[in-house]
Structures are given as C-alpha cells and as structure tokens.
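User: Is it possible to get a 3D structure for a protein together with its bound compound? The compound here is cytidine-5'-diphosphate. I've pasted both below.
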Amino acid sequence: MPPSMPRRGPEMTVTESRALDEIKIGGMGASRRRVEDNRFIRGRGHYIDDVVLPGMLHMEILRSPLAHAKITRIDTSRAYQIPGVRLVLTGDMMATRNLAWMPTLSYDTQAVLATDKVRFQGQEVACVIADDPYIAKDACEAIDVEYEPLPPIVNPDQAMAPGAPLIRDDKENQHDNVAFDWEVGDKERTDQAFASADVVSRISLHYPRSHPSPIECCGSVADFDRATGKLTVYMTTQAPHIVRAAVALIAELPEHQIRIVSPDLGGGFGNKVPVYPGYVMSILASILTERPVKWIEDRTGNLISTGFARDIYLDGELALRKDGRILGVRMHTTSDHGAFFADAQPSKFKIGLMHSAFACYDVPTAHLTARGVYTNKAPGGVAYRCSFRVTEAMFFQERMVQAAADDLGMDQAEFRRMNFVRDDDFPHRTPFGFLTDSGQYAKCLQVGLDAIGYADFRAQQAEARSRGRLLGLGISTMTEPLGAGNSREYDILGIKMFDSAELRVHMTGKAILRTGAKTQGQGHETTWGQIVAHELGIPSEDVLVEEGDTDTAPFGMGTYASRSTPVAGAAVAMVSRKVRAKARKLAAHLLEVSEEDVEWELGRFYVRSNPAQGVTIQECAMAAYSNMPDGLEPGLEANAYYDPPNLTWPFACYIATVEVDPMTGVWDVLRFVAVDDCGVRINPMVVEGQIMGGLTEAYAMASMQFITFDAEGNCVGSNFMDYLLPTAWETPGWELHEVVTPCPHHPIGAKGIGECATVGGPAAFVNAVVDALGGTGVRNIDMPLLPDRVHEALTEKHDVSGAPPVKTD
Ligand code: CDP
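Assistant: Yes, that's possible. Here is the predicted structure of the complex:
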C-alpha cells in the first residue's frame, strides 16, 4: 500500500506539511522507537556467546602474572593429561606458522602468544582448546611456565629514564622505549606569538588510563571448513571488513573464502576496534582442529588486556593579549601506549586527531609535539568513544581555556565568546590545518548560559561562599572532527576511509538496506531506515537494515569515531537517490510521459502539468519487476560508496554546576545543561540517548574511573568493584537543548553525535570543581576527582596531579 498522504490545507505551510509526511512514515526528524530494542528488551538479542555450532570446542587463555619477565620454559604436558583437552597452543607453536606476532593497526607488531618474554601483566602466554570452557580453564592452570622477572616500567618517566630496560627488544633498531615522535603546526610562528604575548598561561594535566568497558566482553567463534576452504568467524568487531583484510593478509587465506560476521554487540566504544590475540588464536585453533572454536573473554581479561584508552600527559600554554585574545598555542603530549602500539589511527596522524584542539577558537598559530612511549602495560590509546584522541584534545583545550581566563581575570563565558570563530567566518582554517565549515558557537553558548541562569548563579555562588558553601560552575565548549575520512587524508594501514550502502527494493516496495558500518547499540537499524524513508517515501518500518556480515554487506570501514552518520549515513542517502533516479524512469513509463515531465514529492511521482496523475514509489517498485520499459534493466537496487569531502564538525556547550562539601571533598552535580548542535537530527530521541549516555561516561571519568598500576606493574582496576560504572543512582539529571546548523556538505545536513558528550563532558565537571575551589590558588586536580583528592587540594591549597596512588592496605 502506498503511504497515505496528509491533506495540504490552506493553514499548513509546505514545510510543515512535508514534516508531517515525514513523521507519518518514520522519516527524518521522527523520534521513531528503536526497532532493535524489540529483540533486546525481550532477551532475544544474538550476541557472540549465543553463537553455538555443532561440534564446537572452547578456548581459554593463560595470561602472564608478571608485567615484564623472560619466559625460560613452558611445559604443557600436565594440561594435555586432562581429559577433554584437544589442543594447547604456545608462542613457539604459533611461531612455526609465522603467527607468533601480528601487525597492529598502527604499523607496529604485537605478540599473539609470548615467545621470548612477557611485556605486560595479563599478556597471552598460551591457550587451551577443550570440550568445554571449564576443562579449558582448569587445563590453563596445569600449564607450567617459568619466568625470569625483569624490572617493570609503569610510566613514561621510567620508560624514558637513561638506562631504562628495553621493552621492545624484539624490534630491530629499537634502542629506547620511544614508540614515536611526531609534530604538527608552525613552530616559528608560534614562537613569535609567545615572544609578543602580554600573558602566557600554562597548564599540565594527566588524563588517566580508562577503559571503554562494554557490558559484553570480546569473543569469537571461528569455524574453518576444510572441505570448502571457507573460514567463517563470528566475532565482536566494530569493523568487520578491516578484520577480513587483516586475516587475508596475516593468515594468507584467500579473501573471498573469509567471512567475518559481527552479530549483535553489547557495546563497543572503541574496545572492539583492535584485532586481539584471542581472535587470531581461535582462528588457528579451528584450522588445526577442524572444529568450530569459541573464545569468550571474561571481565578481568577484558579489563586488563584489551583496549585501554587515554593515559596521556598533556602540557601546554597559551600566548595571550591582555584584552583576552588568544595569540598562539603550544602543546606537548606524552602518551603511554603500553607494550605494543596497537590502537587504530589514521596513518598520517600518530597521536590521532589531537591537533583538532582549539578548532572552535580563532587562534592564529599553534604547534604540537607528541611522544608515544612503550611501558609494561597492556596496549593503550584506543579511541574510547572518541575520534582518535579528540577526547584528550578537547579536555586539554577546555581546561587550558579556563586557566587562561582565570589568569587574565576574565569572565569564563566572555573569554570564550571573544575567541570563538564567528558564524560568518566559515569555512575556517584551524591553527593546525583542519577546515571547519559551519557552526553557531556563540549562540550555543548563549543558549547554555540562559538555561543555567549564568548571571544568577554567579550571584548565588558569591552569597553561598560568604556562608562557607562552595559552589562552582564549569563550562566546556568544543567543536570536534567526526566522520573520517575523506580518503585523501584518512586511511588505516593504507585502506582509505570511506563507506558504503546497498539498497534493494523488492517488488512490493519493501526494502533491505546494508551498509559497511556496524552498530553496537547506536540504533542504526532504526535511523538508516529513516534516511531511506526521507529520500524515497518508503515507510521506515518497510526497510530492513543489516550490518556486520562481510559476505553480504558492501565494503566499509566500520563504526567508531562517530563516523557512521557522516559517512555510511551519507551513503544511505546517496544510494536512495540512485534508486529514486531509476524509479523516475519507471514512473515516466507508467505515466506515459517523458522523464523531464515527472515531478517528485515524498513517496510519489506525478505529472508536472497534472499533479493528480501520479504513481507511488511502491507502484514503481512493482513495475521494476513486472512492467519495465524496453531497454531498462529490471530490478530496483543500487549501491553507493561515499567518500566525504570533509569531516563534519558538531559543536557542543556543556555547563555543570556543582557543590563541594568542604569537610569531605565530596562534590555533587547541582545541574548539567547540554547544548548540542549535530546539524540535522535524523532521530531526535536517538540523538538524546546518545548525549545522555555520553554524559554519563563523562561523569564517570571525571568522578570515579581510573585504572592504575602498582610499582610491579600489577593492574589495579581489573573488575567492576575497582573500576566503577555509574548506575542510575549516581548519575546526575541531564538538561538537553539543541541548536541546528546543517552540515553544508552532508547530503542530509547531519553531523556526527555519538561521542560528543564523552569528549566535551569531562572538562565541564573538572572546571566546575576547580571553580568551586576559587581563591585557594588551586589550578588543577587531575581526574578522577575522588573526594580525598578534592579535599587535599582544598585543605593543602595545592594542585593534585597524576594517577591516584595505589593503596595496598
Ligand atoms: O558512528 P556512530 O553510530 O557511533 O555515531 P553517529 O554517527 O554519531 O550516530 C549515533 C546515532 O545517532 C545513530 O543512530 C545515528 O543515526 C543517530 N544520529 C542522528 O539521528 N542524527 C544525527 N545528526 C547524528 C546521529
């Protein structure tokens, strides 16, 4: 049935009428309920552990108890005596197949199973494949490994100290623990800016090691069929096609015989981008045993060995004119990558998109130097709900801005407003060379200030302080680059960053859409259907969305860095337009007029000279299979590869007000206002969900989350008793507002949103707590702002820096 169109009455404008049409069919702007939730809330999701294949074996990993040690002997004989054990893999066995080491997504190498030595606590040393997971676990304990301990290195200072033990002695020409040195910007011009500054404001910060901690840990089920030569791997990956390419290159299997399936994912947040040893071992185990092999990571394995984020020292300074104008920026970062540089980065940018810092401010010049070091920790630096280090960049930016405004004695909001890129200044070249193209920064700030009642709050704060109560207000404003690539600038291991969509409209007007992205809870099954509805007028409920199977989905770079809407979402719009172009030919045939005489309105073609004479998109679909004109290819389907001309640049203004208890250092969020401009919103409800989730993670990082290491390199934070996730009880209420500045180059004007709140949120909380401590001289408390650290800063009147110390009592 064609969609029923509302009647256009004289009282309704064309725009209103069109919006109503869209809402009716669940198109753009409809807060359509998430279709995937139908199965999730019934417990009918299909996650990796739900994959059960006939004859399946189970794999468990033996991990190193030590952070740095030579392996002198591994004896697997006792493990083999346990009934039900089928195979025990060690590094030496992997080495005979040239699989003991694998390339990482950042042009480094990583041990699959340790051969020479272990380089972090929790590193994979051996694995057992058995009839059930319990036998495999018991057998791991029966593997005898002898270690010769080496001095562990747990922070960059130790790593760079003269005479420090060499962690990566496996690498030729590696004589120290430096993974990379990198720089960007104009040093000379920046030096001149600093030489001419009235005031130089400085800050040094540590962004602690954190973990994306998706509720579902990692896992895989590898199934190699020797008869057909086909390898199918069901696995928790945010980027199935990259994994297929990696397996083809590492295992040297023919690419068309590799099928990677990423089923429902219980969250990813960047944790499921890297290729982990567990995946590789399960594949080899399946090839060797000729049976399906399942590996399901446990919580501790996930928290100590996979996908750490942040762990970076951020130092920098602003050159300022007395009147408040920023003249230049200097930044230096030292990032702790653990034992292997394994996080994904666009190849050109060693420290991700750190140089997106200060993109929303009109800064004439900037210079950034970055050093990455190896330590005896699990690989770090993954983009936890962020675009390749943009979280750290924006945290530094907004903490620096607060410190600079304070140093100048200026109002926080006014300092930002004065330095923002103006609305009429786009396109704008940022000091590090990005091109931003749209935004209404001052307006977003004003909406936020009005919502929080800025002037009133400052008055209340002064009054409260006179009675010994400590109130604070923190602002964080930022634009961030979402949607890598364009392919000119962005690639991973040489694979250019673009994305894709394939749309098939069946004869009854129902459709199936597949993309190269991979949802992990963001709701693509809902929102992609809305884009098709917007472009074709097919009700979104008639569009089935599938992602994550490399045998059926078109090639794409997957979902991370909030790139889905900017890139795959754009491909969905473009593929729908291709289908519409073909449907137009069918419409002309059905209406017996030439194509030029056919007009389009949502879901319907009509004759220009006689609008009452028309055909629906569904009628065109039927004709594509039953009544096509001579010479026209049958069927109604297309695919589109989309290479965006630029990144999208959403903007956010987050404002927190807090009260700090001077007796205990406990701080409470009084209010939190979020103003997000992500361009056109496909589904406002989904966007709000993304913002609320992101803010909750931001709050967690600011207030309670950290993973640290003792002097021996033992990981503290290996379970949810130590590494805290906020529940609804702790989480503050969020007050959400919107501004819409359409993206000028995106086909539907959308910008990414998924990570904005996680990126911009933390600085709002920290700025608010530091503001509450005004008058004490405290410039910084490093995250997490645990009560004892806040109390120490308040009572001792000094900054509190670095990771919280490990308490062993
Ligand atoms: O790449 P990822 O899906 O993590 O992030 P995203 O592209 O920012 O999208 C997150 C969710 O919000 C998706 O379901 C999008 O379709 C939706 N979204 C939206 O409805 N409108 C926007 N302007 C941006 C995202």
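The pocket of cytidine-5'-diphosphate is lined by residues 522-524, 527, 559, 562-565, 569, 678-683, 686-687, 690, 750-754 (CB under 6 Å). The first strand starts at residue 57 and ends at 63.
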